[in-house]
Amino acid sequence: MLIITDKIYKDIAEQLLVDIDQKYFFSGSIEYDTEDLYSTLITSLIIDKKTIVLPEGAHDIIIDVTPVWWEFKTYQREGEVYNSFSWQEFKEFLPINLIE
Prior knowledge:
This protein is an alpha+beta fold.
């Protein structure tokens, strides 16, 4: 089994944030490619946002990302390999603002 490292989670989260920037729903894939590993996160997400108003203006912040469906596949030279991807662990790398 391929262990998904914090670096992989972080890099995929950064790519995802670019893709969901102004969206409230996302359906697509994020690719992660290195010399030793190719992976893809295929997912449909509901992005829950809240508008906050500051002196410099209003903007939306992400307060939750809920997967409707996801699949994370990894491939190495020998083919597809099982991996330790966990949505709960991945979510820790998303800048979700918990608002009471």
